[in-house]
Input
Amino acid sequence: MEIIRVIAMPDLAVTAAWAVLVLVTLVLATRHQAGPPCAEDAIGARRRQGAGRGEVRPTAPGALGLALLVALLGGGASVGCAPPARETGRPVAAATIAPLADLAARVAGPGWEVRTVMPPGVSEHVFEPDPREVRAVAPARLVVVAGGGLDDWVRKLLQACAPGVPVFDAGAAVGIHAPKGGAGGHGHGASHGGGGELDEEPHWWLSAALAARSLAPMAEAFARVDPAGAAGYRERAARETEELLALDRQIAAELAPFRGRRFVSAHLAWSQFAARYGLVPVGAVEPVPGREPSPRDLKELIDAARHGGSGALFTEPQFPPGAARVIAREAGIRLTTVDPIGGVPGRETYPELMRFNADAFARGLSGEGP
Ligand SMILES: [Zn+2]
Output
């Protein structure tokens, strides 16, 4: 019946659908040249710098491709930002990175669909949103960000595609703020090697104690969007806070034997983790994410690893392992994988991710192998 009705649809409706498609295409093609936020700023131009190296993603479509995508997704009702035609029916929240999305889902409960904006395998420091991320955020009623300058890339996306949507800055809620003078989304300027200010170190979720502290204010953010559900959000946040504090104690106990041990990581993500669990970050293979070390940097890292008492080197799935392998081999130290972001099988939930990292640090620092 459905098919027959479609075929029998008056020509007028078909013509109107095509007219919308063509109109949207023209509008976007024109805007593309003028530099509109959705087609150019938030998506096209920024992709040229490339997402995480080693990551295989198709290139962003041109203005025409994007226009077609937009038209197909939403019939052109809302240029550039239409939600997918098929929704789950649940209200949508979006979080920039996987561990935050899991925390948000725990507070939101089953009544919400919580989406992750940044796909796995990419460094949060070089990530460039493309149309898939537009689809993630466009229908969101609340967006959760890590803050501290780490995921500012989402702000442009929101300006273009979800203007006015409430943003919950979870980092700010636990006392993290962007480094003064701006860190360009890296947040590493003042925190090199963990010697900087911890309240400017944006990888706060890698301390389970800080993650636990983010949940009660997150519940209030959900309650502001949906006052009728406030009691549920607060109840879940309280319960999950206890869970995360228990996880925090487990990790602290597991890493207690390694107190004061030094390590080098792929990028400067582990200052909060180290501060909470008694370790000492002494450097990174890529202090500026996206810029691989020069031969001179490599030599310094090898010397530091040989003579600085750094017993372990930790690589991360979002960074190319080549330089780390060289350092580990030359310095004769162990290379172990840790993961600040997760969002992949085995590290999908926040507790899974943190247990993975605690185990990896314990293994790497005890010299038990990768
Ligand atoms: Zn980072």
